[in-house]
Amino acid sequence: MSIVYDRTKTVVRRHVAPGEAVPLHPEAVGFAGHYDFDIDVLAAYRPTGKGRVERQVLIVRDHVLAGRAFSSLEELDAAFMAWVPQRRARTHATHHEVIGHRAARDHAALKPLPPSPYLVAERHLRPVGKDCLVAFGGNLYSVPARKVRPRQLVEIRATKSQVMVHTTAPDVSGETLLSSHPRAVGRGVVVKQDEHWDGLPTGKNRRTTTGDEPPPPQERVLRVRSHRAVAGPVEPDRCNPDRGREAAAVGL
C-alpha cells in the first residue's frame, strides 16, 4: 500500500522544516499513482526507519562474489540463482521467519501490475510555429494544423526513441496526444507527417506580381507626381513620350 523513501531528490523537491508537508516531485507522484501506492517520506535523521536495503548488497557480495571470478554475465547469473534457494531457506534475524515463506506471503499481498508500464520521459513546454512545427533538441516535429494554433504551448514528452507532443489540456474526449514521431538523430532534422499540414494556408489566394507586369494605373500616377512636382506646363519626355501625356492627363 505504501513505500518508504529517503529524502532523495527524485522524490522530494526540497527540504522543509519538521512538521511541514514535504513537497513531492511530480514524476514521483505520477509514478506512484500509476502503480497505485502511497509515498511515505522518511523523517530526517531517522536511519532506522527504513528497511536494510543496502545490507542485501553486502550479503550478495560476501556469499556470491567474494573470492570468485566470472568469465561472462551468464556465469554470474547462474552462480546467483544457485545461491538464492540457500538464502531463502535461512531464518531471518529480524522477523525470525523463514525468508522463503515470508517472501511468498508478501508476494501474494501485492497488487497486480497495470497493463502498461509507466512511461519515463523528459517533459518540456514548447510553442507551435506558424508552419505547425515544434522545436525540440535542435530538430523540428510536426503537429496537426487543424488541432493547434500558432504560438500555442504544447508539452513535449521525449524518451530515448520517441517524441510525443501533447496538449496542455484534454479535449472533449479526454485525449491529449497530438502526434508521435521517432526521435531524430543529430540536429537540423525535420520530422513530419504530410497529413499534418492539411489546413495550412497555401498562398494561392494571395495576389502576387512579377517584374514583367506593368504597375497598376494608380502606381503610375504616383510615380509621375514624384518626378513632376513643379508647376507649369509639362513638356513631352524625349526618352518616354507616354510619361508626358500621362502627366498632362492628370493635370500636372
Characterization of the model:
It is a single chain. By secondary structure, this protein is an alpha/beta fold. The protein is 28% helix and 17% strand. It contains six helices and nine strands, in the order βαβαααβββββββαα. The strands form three sheets. It has a four-stranded antiparallel sheet with strand order 3-6-7-8, with no helix packed on it. The chain is elongated and about 85 Å long. The N and C termini lie far apart (93 Å). About 2% of the residues have low confidence.
Q: Which descriptors would you attach to this protein?
A:
elongated; 6 helices; 252 residues; 9 strands; 3-stranded mixed β-sheet; alpha/beta; 4-stranded antiparallel β-sheet
Sequence of secondary-structure elements: EHEHHHEEEEEEEHH
How many distinct beta strands?
A: 9
Beta percentage is: 15-25%
Dominant shape? elongated
User: Span between N and C termini?
Assistant: 93 Å
Helix coverage percent of residues?
A: 25-40%
Number of helices: 6
Q: Please outline the major beta sheet.
A: 4 strands, antiparallel
The low-pLDDT segments are 226-231
Average pLDDT metric: 83
Radius of gyration, in angstroms, nearest whole number = 36 Å
Question: What structural category characterises the helix and strand content?
Answer: alpha/beta
- Sequence of strands across the biggest β-sheet: 3-6-7-8
Short recap of the structure:
With 252 residues, the chain is of the alpha/beta class. The protein is 28% helix and 17% strand.
